[in-house]
Amino acid sequence: MSFLKEFREFAVKGNVIDLAVGVIIGAAFAKIVDSLVSDIIMPIVGLVFGKLDFSNLYIVLGPTPTGVANNLADLKKSGAPVLAYGNFITIAVNFVILAFIIFLMVKQINKLKKSQEAAPPPAPPEDVVLLREIRDSLKRP
Q: CA 102, CA 33: separation in Å to the nearest integer?
């Protein structure tokens, strides 16, 4: 019984819920970045480097089986040893872009925090100022 109670307390803590929200938003953000890389950035990079499609770059590490077309999908289906480095390039570019975007976000958040910390506290209301003056005048001998 205490195990279930302990689990329930853990599951409804704010940190667990915040983590769940972060994971869900992170997954959605990953899809956005994935689309940005594969649909926008990689075609431009491919155009610059001669219309390359990085996802289909590969090296066959052994003999090509007979009767198998010389493309990545068919070679993988046949079980031929293939070094598919193009997919790695795409994922590496995706990571760099994601890391840069997160860096910019954290930088902006830190900038906002610094501006909030540097802002002087608001002036106290007039009634508080008057009460302080009365208090200080009563303290004087």
A: 11
